[in-house]
Predict the 3D structure of the following.
Amino acid sequence: MLRVDALHPDPSIIEQAAVVLRRGGLVALPTETVYGLAADATNAAAVAKIFEAKQRPRTDPLIVHISNTAELPEVAADPPPLAHALANAFWPGPLTMVLRRSPSIPPIVSSGLDTVAVRFPAHAVAVALIRALGAPIAAPSANLFSRPSPTRADHVLKDLGGRIDMILDGGPTTVGVESTVVDLTIDPPAVLRPGGVPIEALREIDPRIFYAPRHAAANEAVSSPGMLLKHYAPRAEVRLFSGPREGVLVRMHREISQLTSQGKTVGVLALSEDAASLNAATHLADLGSAGRLDDVSRNLFEGLRSLDDYAAEVIFVRAPDRKGLGEAIWDRLYRAAEGRIIEVV
Ligand code: AMP
Ligand code: MG
């Protein structure tokens, strides 16, 4: 594990990481969304090691990262005009576009699909490493499959320590949830995964872009397996509450008190303004204020992991409004809860 400045990475450290990638090794690195586990995207044997290290099924395709929009034609064949418009608006940044795959990207990256997911990340470390390598990198989130995504280097160390060659520690990530994935190979274009770019912002570029939430059970075949229902899951049971705030807080308080009086270790992932009503819990992780969804998304995975570290048996959380970043936050919580929502009317 090497520390690296997130804004001005030391070129000699970046070069050490590039050497690992050139030899077909794996490097975990910070991006603005979550930490990624990188391999040279043009090296099929190196990419295979990503699936091994994460224990990720080979049917779950990886995102290819480039260091400049001009590199898009190297990884994607015939990107449509909308790809350029979205790149102009949101790159570098937390937007991934699914396009036709170029022959330079081996099929294993895309789980055999003839498409490829591409992103230009807004993080100096990621960009410097891609440039030093001189090739795109394939990089999924640097966690064990189905665990909460890593937003700090120590999350990566905990999940993947001993299984990968190097971790670049650039401090906590700023966005905290993964990129928004939009499929431009279908008409109309569709959001496959809500993420760091709000869907409303995409629709300002093309109002036809649609999103139909679809969360598949583990045994269901899916074209975009990041949509698996059980994902981002802590070890604890997650109870996700939805409905009017006052009613939800009363119900949460009652259930928390019941469990703690039975001697259970109860965690709560609390919006700042809710914390006082939920202090019967054994451990409380502060998500930040509902009025600052960028704070909530930044704190989300760290909160889930910290309650796991406290060995919480049950984690309580109130669902945020599904507007802007709220849609991505809701999606991650819904899957952490494996689809169990407690509706309070
Ligand atoms: P991760 O990098 O771990 O956040 O996961 C990447 C996710 O991007 C996958 O789980 C899919 O949901 C999506 N994805 C990547 N490549 C493709 C593709 N070619 N077609 C559709 N979805 C993709
Ligand atoms: Mg992932």
User: Anything to note?
Assistant: The CA atoms of residues 201 and 324 lie 8 Å apart. The first helix runs from residue 11 to 22. The chain has a mean pLDDT of 94. The chain has two domains: 2-211, 237-343.
